[in-house]
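Sequence only, no structure available. Ideas?
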Amino acid sequence: MTLVVLTLAPTAGAQVPFEVLHEFTGYSRADGPEARLIQATDGDLYGTTLSGGAFNRGSIFKMTSAGVVTVLHSFSGPDGQSPRTALVQAADGNFYGTTDLGACSSKVCGAYGTIFRMTPAGDVTLLHEFRGSDGFFPSALVQLPDGVFYGT
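Reply:
I predicted one. Tokens follow.
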């Protein structure tokens, strides 16, 4: 997959120039970006990949404006798998997100998604694991001014 950044041309009808900042080329780093990027308070862009990472279960990455990508976290299974939605940088400076699967060991996944918190350094904490009776396959989160997170 290729990440493309578009810039608007100053005149109507002109070609829209673009520049490839990073090409996702395989499982060892990150692969399969699906969600939108967010720009964090440090100015870098942050995103998730559905697959790839050290365990081929998805990853969280940051990218500088020069296109340098650093994988901050590779999902291993017990901490979730297959993040499909955008991250949220909360008022506390941490990042929050969801995965489609969770509690995976080997090829068996016993949960229907997770909610996690990641520090800017890349340390991930599992906050909730969905079991079906409380929902499954969570979508993107939003934090309201009262500090509470909401999602579907």
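Residues 7 and 64 are 17 Å apart (CA to CA).
Hope that gets you unstuck.
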